[in-house]
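# step 3/5: fold
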Amino acid sequence: MKKCLIVLVSLSIAGAGEYYYMNGDRRVELQPVESRGIGVREYGGTKPFLLENGEKIEVANRIIVKFSSLENLDAYEAEYGLRPLKRIGGKIFLFETDSIEMALDAANALEKRADVVYAQPDILKTRRLR
């Protein structure tokens, strides 16, 4: 388990400054931005990013995963350092990781697994006051 976590952390550090997540076959680039004000801190913080279209979002250290089979659930939790926060229903889970970078890495790795329907970072849209 420690080797896997070290690999994930190494990948995050090696790709420092390059953030993305996979949405099916499409790579969604994330541009880090300076945080202005206080972000959402309910589950350990978020990091602000801009999407390709200029929309501001915040990515948390959580991922949402839908499995087609729960056979490898325990193995994935150990391999990617996932801590279950909530079972949303059926085979959909909300997991927490130690960092936002680990959440992105885990979501991208799980997205490639045959028994995973989807794995996405928990994205919060920024509200604008009028």
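# step 4/5: annotate
The two ends are 48 Å apart (CA to CA).
# step 5/5: archive (pending)
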